[in-house]
């Protein structure tokens, strides 16, 4: 099964295949997994080995204005800078746009504005592809369901399947070979007191992509066989924590899940280590603060930065320890 087969199957009964608008705009929030996705059962379709669970980042995300014109070359700008189609993101974006180029002479222009550093493990590709599929839907007038858009976003980047909603989202791994049962769904629980701090320790682009690192982990880590069982346990604990507003259970499960994922990567060959010295220093500071009674936990993705989890009652305290850290309350509109 190829990406084009999935796109064809989803768009099979859509009548307006030609763009019904010349321009469309969409916004998607970034998301942070509390129970991670690490490892694919199908690399072409980004089908995961396991389900995963995330929280969206509200105003942190990307906005896209997408337009089409016949007989004009593709162009894309990110934060007003022309994107090089030879760059790694440029290649991925172009490959994705090709899936929707119904006539070979159709040219796309994508104007992307994002307030998160690209490729630094802050889910820039998640909100990028999620906003793109929504803009395509509006441009072509497909009126797809969020479930269908989640499948299309997954073809761009796995974690993008979770970026079409606000709040808690679960991505079901699915079992089908064509991935038609591998999509995300929003969870109705809300947690207004929950805070996420973005502890940005470096905004330089990562040296190894999550795609390459995942494949290497699956292929070489002696510990990867334990990962699906870890996720099964953590996913159910995190869903229980969200239902019961049990912050200790949420924090410790999310932190332990992230550390297990990174330990698995570290045991790959060649090893994969996303932490920088500053990451380790920050982890130790968080453990010390916790020992002193401040309930703060961290999670880490494919980059050196940490995302801190704490409750609104500790916000002032957190600001004194991490003065420049952006804080998001995903369930409060600011
Ligand atoms: O979808 P990708 O290729 O950006 O991979 C995301 C991997 C992690 O961020 C580490 C985990 C996750 O579930 O988001």
Task: Tell me what you see in this structure.
This protein has 334 residues and is an alpha+beta fold. Helices cover 36% and strands 23% of the residues. It has nine helices and 13 strands. A hairpin with a 4-residue loop joins strand 2 (40-42) and strand 3 (47-48). The longest helix has 20 residues, at 247-266. It is globular, with a radius of gyration of 20 Å. It starts with a helix and ends in a 6-residue tail after the last strand. The structure holds (3R)-3-hydroxy-3-methyl-5-(phosphonooxy)pentanoic acid.
Query: Tell me about the biggest sheet?
Result: 7 strands, mixed
Low-confidence stretches: none
Shape: globular
Distance between the termini: 43 Å
Structural class comes to alpha+beta
Number of strands: 13
Radius of gyration equals 20 Å
Elements, N to C (H/E):
HEEEEEEHEHHEEEHHHHEEHE
Descriptive keywords:
binds (3R)-3-hydroxy-3-methyl-5-(phosphonooxy)pentanoic acid; alpha+beta; 23% strand
Question: Topology of this structure?
Answer:
Layout: H1 3-11, E1 23-35, E2 40-42, E3 47-48, E4 52-70, E5 75-78, E6 81-82, H2 88-98, E7 106-114, H3 124-140, H4 146-156, E8 168-171, E9 184-186, E10 194-199, H5 210-220, H6 227-244, H7 247-266, H8 277-291, E11 297-300, E12 306-311, H9 315-321, E13 327-328
Parallel strand pairs: 5-7
Antiparallel strand pairs: 1-4, 2-3, 4-7, 4-8, 5-6, 8-9, 10-12, 10-13, 11-12
Residues 33, 36-37, 52, 125, 157-159, 210-211, 301-302 line the site of (3R)-3-hydroxy-3-methyl-5-(phosphonooxy)pentanoic acid.
């Amino acid at each position: 099964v190829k990406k084009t087969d999935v796109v064809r199957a989803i768009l099979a009964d859509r009548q307006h295949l030609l763009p019904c608008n010349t321009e469309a705009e969409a916004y998607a929030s970034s998301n942070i997994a509390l129970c991670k996705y690490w490892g694919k059962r199908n690399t072409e379709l980004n089908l995961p080995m396991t389900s995963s669970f995330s929280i969206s980042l509200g105003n942190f995300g990307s906005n896209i204005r997408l337009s089409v014109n016949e007989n004009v070359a593709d162009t894309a700008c990110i934060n007003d800078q022309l994107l090089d189609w030879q760059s790694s993101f440029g290649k991925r974006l172009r490959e994705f746009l090709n899936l929707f180029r119904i006539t070979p002479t159709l040219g796309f222009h994508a104007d992307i504005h994002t307030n998160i550093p690209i490729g630094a493990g802050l889910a820039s590709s998640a909100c990028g592809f999620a906003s793109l599929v929504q803009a395509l839907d509006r441009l072509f007038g497909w009126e797809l369901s969020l479930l269908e858009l989640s499948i299309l976003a997954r073809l761009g980047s796995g974690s993008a399947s979770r970026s079409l909603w606000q709040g808690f989202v679960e991505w079901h791994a699915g079992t089908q070979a064509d991935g038609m049962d591998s999509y995300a769904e929003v969870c109705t629980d809300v947690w207004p007191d929950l805070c996420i701090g973005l502890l940005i320790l470096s905004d330089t682009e990562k040296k190894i992509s999550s795609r390459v690192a995942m494949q290497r982990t699956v292929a070489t880590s002696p510990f990867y066989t334990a990962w699906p069982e870890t996720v099964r346990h953590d996913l159910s604990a995190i869903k229980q924590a969200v239902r019961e507003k049990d912050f200790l259970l949420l924090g410790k499960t999310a932190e332990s899940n992230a550390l297990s994922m990174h330990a698995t990567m570290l045991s790959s060959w060649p090893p994969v280590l996303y932490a920088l010295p500053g990451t380790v220093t920050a982890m130790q500071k968080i453990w010390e603060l916790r020992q002193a009674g401040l309930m703060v936990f961290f999670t880490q993705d494919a980059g050196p930065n940490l995302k801190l989890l704490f409750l609104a009652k500790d916000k002032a305290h957190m600001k004194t320890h991490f003065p420049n850290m952006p804080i998001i309350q995903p369930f409060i509109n600011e």
